[in-house]
Amino acid sequence: MKLKLLLSFSILLTASISQAQDSLTIRKIYDEALVNGQAYDNLHYLCKNIGQRISGSANAQKAVDWSKKLMDSYGFDHVFLQEVMVPHWVRGDKEVAKIIDGDKEIAVPIVALGMSVATPKEGITAEVIEVQSLAELKTLGESVIKGKIVFFNRPFDPRFIETGRAYGTAGDQRFAGPAEAAKYGAVGAIVRSLTEIIDDYPHTGTTRYGDIKIPAAAISTKGANLLSSMLKLKKLPAVKFYFKQNCEQLPDVLSYNVIAELKGTENPNKFITVGGHLDSWDLAEGANDDGTGVMQSLEVLRILKTIGYHPKNSIRAVFFMNEENGDKGGEKYAELAAKNKEEHIAAIETDEGGFTPRGFGFTGLSAAALKNVKQNWKPLLEPYDADKLIAGGGGTDIEPLRTAVPSIILIGYLPDSQRYFDLHHTAKDVFENVNKRELELGSAAMASLIYLIDQHGF
Amino acid sequence: MKLKLLLSFSILLTASISQAQDSLTIRKIYDEALVNGQAYDNLHYLCKNIGQRISGSANAQKAVDWSKKLMDSYGFDHVFLQEVMVPHWVRGDKEVAKIIDGDKEIAVPIVALGMSVATPKEGITAEVIEVQSLAELKTLGESVIKGKIVFFNRPFDPRFIETGRAYGTAGDQRFAGPAEAAKYGAVGAIVRSLTEIIDDYPHTGTTRYGDIKIPAAAISTKGANLLSSMLKLKKLPAVKFYFKQNCEQLPDVLSYNVIAELKGTENPNKFITVGGHLDSWDLAEGANDDGTGVMQSLEVLRILKTIGYHPKNSIRAVFFMNEENGDKGGEKYAELAAKNKEEHIAAIETDEGGFTPRGFGFTGLSAAALKNVKQNWKPLLEPYDADKLIAGGGGTDIEPLRTAVPSIILIGYLPDSQRYFDLHHTAKDVFENVNKRELELGSAAMASLIYLIDQHGF
């Protein structure tokens, strides 16, 4: 009995010394991020000196070159590129759209959806059929839809607290709506921008075609509300819609994932990855989507190196290429992980904006392991308001790792979600909408979690 | 034994039915805030149609009149004003300041501190002595300080996670620095703006004089860095500073707290208060300080009324007057509470910006009561990310209630703090820097807490 007691006591003591050490290291991580943080300045360079960097563009290549040089400058153990072929879609001239109400024409803001085909040179003019869901297309059928422009207008549901869920729920209209409308003979598709905010900024984003490709664009929420209210009047002659875009799919281009690594002192072939995507949409600077993510990931490595932490396992910051319209970088990273027989413990993705941290979502943890994580790590992250540790999470870039390395734990970094879809995929996604401290706190939260995973595993 | 078991079971059942009811009501509150929220539009009116509303100004009176009318329009049980005399300080002409380096003069942005006296008409020109703390003044003594301008330049400490703590730590330079410098014969005081951000916007705010009043102003952080670096060069002739301001203290003015009330169905003389302050600084629109707070408070009442909730206790939304430079409204509210023998259960203050909710801080709860609050209410607030329930909190306006009604629980609403001091007391505190959803979630969080207090007490 005595021995057992002594043993328990010694385990408790060890646990408490270890917790104290963890607490000290995490404080060091935060101090480094908040006092000497470099993510904000790096992001400024990426946004203002390079700017938009859609896959396959000259700017995407500039971003690759600069990122590699930046990583080299920090003196990490290993910096390298992974070759990956990516699609090269170009928007072409600024899109034009009008609501035509008899003799009256009202210009409305649209943007072509990513990967969309062009309209004919003279544009498309057609009557409009408004729907709230993909299912409605089936109900209406080809007799109603044929020759028309389908207008998907189901709004964001504001009742979701986490805005990503509203995006997920409304998103099928953009991802799958145009392909579905084409099946019923629609000549074009116009999708309400995926946002709750009512303004004049249309939100782009990829659409996925089936066999038939019809021109597809997003309309601003103000434009959508106007169009919808005019359609409701059911005037004769019927309201028509005109739009013109000359976007184009060019041949695939050789591009790169850009990777920095701190070598593991005990398990160099075991990896913990943190990453975001380097490519962006072409309408602005890709500041929150996902300049913040890549610059935070790099900062995680910089912080760990600067405070003199020597990880047991190898830690990688990965700037994935082509998240926005192809996911080719994420697929390549997973493919090479499998091919090179890398053991991947965990991967964190930061692609929900550089906003104030809330916590992390975990995929692949058993209920018991998640309970442990909460019990042991929540108290360490609570003083930093980054202690929301929940089941479910990951990201597009790391998702392919799940198949490639089935034992991996995928982790989504969860910043506060309220402002993201005000900016997402619009001309407003600029550096000025990133807050320095929020960005820095995110880097620190991820560096802290990686430290804990590296020290204790799951 | 059986009876006891049955009893326990029935208590458990009651608890669980009550928790389920609470959960449903809170969901209703959030739905109403997020789907039909009016706080954002009301705030827009206050910011754009009234604008700055410093105590004693014509705009402050406009804000009182409009607020009263707005409250009347909602049909609450009781809407009334409380008379209160408030100071009337005016800034006068735009301030001018220059660093004088021999023949060179460099303009820098300053603003007079609230309640500061004017400089002589021709301004003040004097040598500058930079200090990091009030204690340093004593060390330097009158022989060094006399005839000089004291420049308080201790920066915000970025290591605090909650920025309010950095404000608290650096704040003595503004509150007490000028009065202290005057004791040693300083002819003026220049205070580094209370913010971490490095930019050209000076932050005003009240300073408190002793017997000797010297002109006092805040300098932008960029200006402060420039001045400090020039002083470090120790050139001869010494760098001088020039500033000119003609602010003025006019006679006190009659003003008002504006109050709306839902009458308690069981305890009409027991009160739960939620409030912010209607007055603002004069440099912008007082959007986050504290337009968001008053509009959220009103929205709390609107939500509870709209969902058909009939509170047991009376619930008040209070628009306090004169928080920024006198606290006269808060003092009056407490004075009348005592005089009218009102029983006050709790008061929540929302005066830290309309940012995304984190939770609440409680003052006056025993450790056991706080534990109960956490145990029972945290699970209900967790789905809404508003479940940080901590010891300590309140606000300037409700603080006098602590003496007037010693049994009261004071509660500070805790929004995320990262962005507040970028804007606080500057020309940037405008409507455009408020996010609609963040504002609405705050109203819903406070309405939910008030519902729980009203139902269950502490």
Task: Give your account of this protein's structure.
Two copies of one chain form a homodimer. Chain A has 14 helices and 16 strands. Chain A has 458 residues and is of the alpha/beta class. Chain A folds into two domains: 268 residues, Aminopeptidase, CATH 3.40.630; 153 residues, 3-Layer(bba) Sandwich (Glucose Oxidase, domain 1). The longest helix of chain A is centred in the N-terminal third of the chain and has 35 residues. The radius of gyration of chain A is 24 Å and the shape is elongated. Chains A, B: Pfam families: Peptidase_M28.
Itemize the secondary structure elements and their pairings.
The structure is a homodimer of 458-residue chains.
Chain A: H1 2-36, H2 39-50, H3 58-73, E1 78-90, E2 96-101, E3 104-107, E4 110-112, E5 124-131, H4 134-145, E6 149-152, H5 163-170, H6 172-175, H7 177-183, E7 188-192, E8 216-219, H8 221-232, E9 240-244, E10 248-262, E11 267-277, H9 287-306, E12 313-320, H10 328-339, E13 343-349, E14 357-363, H11 367-381, E15 388-391, H12 400-404, E16 409-415, H13 420-423, H14 436-456
Parallel strand pairs in A: 5-6, 6-7, 7-8, 11-12, 11-13, 13-16, 14-15
Antiparallel strand pairs in A: 1-10, 2-3, 2-9, 4-8, 5-9, 10-12, 14-16
Subunit structure (chains A, B): Homodimer. The monomeric form is inactive while the homodimer is active.
Domain Peptidase M28 (chains A, B): 257-444
Subcellular location (chains A, B): Endoplasmic reticulum; Golgi apparatus; Lysosome; Secreted
